[in-house]
Design a protein that fits this description.
Elements: H1 8-17, H2 27-46
Length: 69
């Protein structure tokens, strides 16, 4: 994974490659947003989920009336 900063020019190039041409005034904003997303993903990758079951295992709306408080 590239740990260097994403320049506005690189953001424009990647957007164009994805078929999303950007106007010149959007390059810096898109680069900043992409860097923020990358930092969030990096933080999530550091989390240890251990034996946490996938979300599909949990059933919502089921109450347990016999729970102790």
């Amino acid at each position: 994974m590239n740990t260097g900063r994403l320049t506005p020019q690189e953001a424009a190039r990647w957007a164009l490659r994805a078929g999303l041409p950007l106007s010149d005034d959007r390059h810096e904003v898109v680069a900043g947003t992409a860097e923020h997303i990358q930092s969030v993903i990096a933080t999530l990758r550091e989390l240890d989920f251990g034996d946490t079951a996938p979300a599909a295992v949990y059933l919502t709306g089921q109450e347990h009336d016999n729970a102790a408080v």
